[in-house]
Amino acid sequence: MGLLTDPNCEQGKLTKALMKYYNLVCVLFYLAGIVCFLALASREINVNTYFSENALLPGLVKSEFRDDSLARRFYTELQDEMKKYDNSLPYPWLLAKFQQLGLDTYTHNFSLTSVLGKSQKFTGKNVYGILRAPRAASTESLILSVPYRPPTSPHLTTAPSIAILLAFANFAVKEKYWAKDIIFLITEHEQLGMQAWLEAYHDVQCGSDGILARGDLEGRAGVIQAAINLELHTDKIAHIDVKIEGLNGQLPNLDLFNLVTKICTKEGVYNTFKMRDNKEFRSFYKDWAHSMNTLLAMVTSQATGIPDGNHGLFHRFGIEALTIEGYPYNGKGNNWKVEFLIMGRILEGVFRSLNNLLEKFHQSFFFYLLPSSNRYVSIGHYFPSIAAIAGVLYLRACAKWCKLQKKVTTVTKEEDDEQNQKEVQIIDAHKRVQNVFFNKEKLEELKNSFKNDMKLCYSCPKKEKSQIGDVILIFFITHFIGIILMNSPKYMVEIGDYYNIPKERSIFYGYNLISCFLLVIPVFVSFRKNSKAMAVLNVIALLELGTLLICVAMNNFSLALLTGILYTPFALLINNSNTKLMSTVQRIFWLLVHPCLVLTLVVLINTSFLFSNETFQEIFYRGINATQQALVYGIVDSMIYGNWLFNIVTAIFLPNWLCFWILTFSPTQDSEEKDKLKLE
């Protein structure tokens, strides 16, 4: 530690080696991080899933569910009832069914004030029934939820899910072994209704003030331990896909995922993860490629921080949850149909296992990656990859700091003697100049020596100020700008409303316009020609980016990994260049990874894959519109659900990008030599 604090401390062999080979070491560490991640798909690294909690095994016993005919009747009645409610929840029918089954039945009203733009109010209603545990005192509970989708919804119907929910409730009411309450919940408006219900149940507010009015609940059960969200799109299912990604990249306990997949396998149901089945190939490469595709599908989905189902909103409350989604036959898997009888048995097995839990999930992993539904990668195996990539930034910062300290301590004893001798010469020159002014007769004689003495008087080099205070000030100013950008969408929308511009365009063009203005910040940086001050700023920016990657990886590894892979090489390229041409190249490369440009490029690439048959112009305009909507959705998610992806990008990552942008204007070696010539 003395090396980082005491400039007089001698550098050891390790430090000297680091300063000499740090470029090579950084490249090796970066490549090692990528190789570590690619190796995760190998069966030599990942392992088979298993039950860590033996209390979950009772669900694997013989099933007793036989109410499939009742489920079909509910399904037929619900389809007729949905025709009367084109765009709302048929809550009178649902309330009546819950009451007929003997459940404690309640409704939950909530409202949403428009997040952006003109003030508008939207209302919604949830319906839920509670089966009180006959063998306990309502201290713990489980949830079976279904998002209701009216006939006008653009999404696939969930009417079969409601039918099997009611049939399973009828089955559960007759059983006496329940030790936990079971809440049967049907929500309106997709995730919005679920978020309002959870906030009301726990009496908290997760989003911004004055947006989501969660309302009050008339009835409650015990502490919620686990939840299953059901989305069946047909009454005859070909395969089941299990979804686990939650808000901000959170995941449920691995035991819950294992439980659902094992019971599906026990009942002979073809199940997938990320719509990909489990295949084993004799060829190592084919097996690795298949697992890597599944792993990348999970990484790209988790990195967005957006839940892929209503289950994703439970995780922040310490509730383990996942979604079981049933699809009709689409050419994959077996063509035989899974009807209500099998689905009822799956629900019975899952809830009987959860009912047997004596404590919360804690035995298995909460941080993992899945290359398939029967194999997993633990945090101990995948975290070294992001640690190596972030370590590159720390190594570069350390090397920069050591080089900076070396420049400070390079003055030798001989240079000190020379400096002292020069100071004596300057004093003598001052005396001779004064004598010349007071004795004009000798002016002609001393004309030549006078010129030399004047040059010597003004040849004393001015010490370069450290300007550390200015560096810290610029660092805080850039982050203050980020905070302003984080809170600016509503003002952009107000300006757009004044000129009758849609909010999507107002926000998109507003951020792009501000980004263009921010590109001139280096002009106002006073120390941009001070190489030492710019080196200090470089160290701070590298440390911040590395710390950001590590902190984000603790909760959302996928987001940190993708960010690190993309930005680390470009951050390493930014350095004091030899020529102005290299500085220009650095600026161009760093502009290519501006957050707004990266978002646009990612959406355009995704659009080109989804609509490959369209022309380039059509894809471009479709991609720009999709980018505008994605930006608005990110802002809305942050204000309603508490998704922190938008906040992190604007408040932390964009200011860090600005710091590196300022560094691209560091003085080149040519400019430093010219400055020395001017002084001479």
Automatic annotation (TrEMBL):
State if Endoplasmic reticulum is listed as a keyword: yes
Which coarse location class describes where this protein primarily resides? endoplasmic reticulum
Q: Has the keyword Transmembrane been applied to this entry? A: yes
Q: What does this protein do?
A: Component of the glycosylphosphatidylinositol-anchor (GPI-anchor) transamidase (GPI-T) complex that catalyzes the formation of the linkage between a proprotein and a GPI-anchor and participates in GPI anchored protein biosynthesis. Binds GPI-anchor.
This protein is called what?
A: GPI-anchor transamidase component GPAA1
Task: Provide the alphabetized UniProt keywords.
Answer: Disulfide bond, Endoplasmic reticulum, Glycoprotein, Membrane, Transmembrane, Transmembrane helix
Q: Write out the transmembrane intervals.
A: 21-41, 379-397, 471-488, 508-527, 534-553, 559-576, 588-611, 644-666
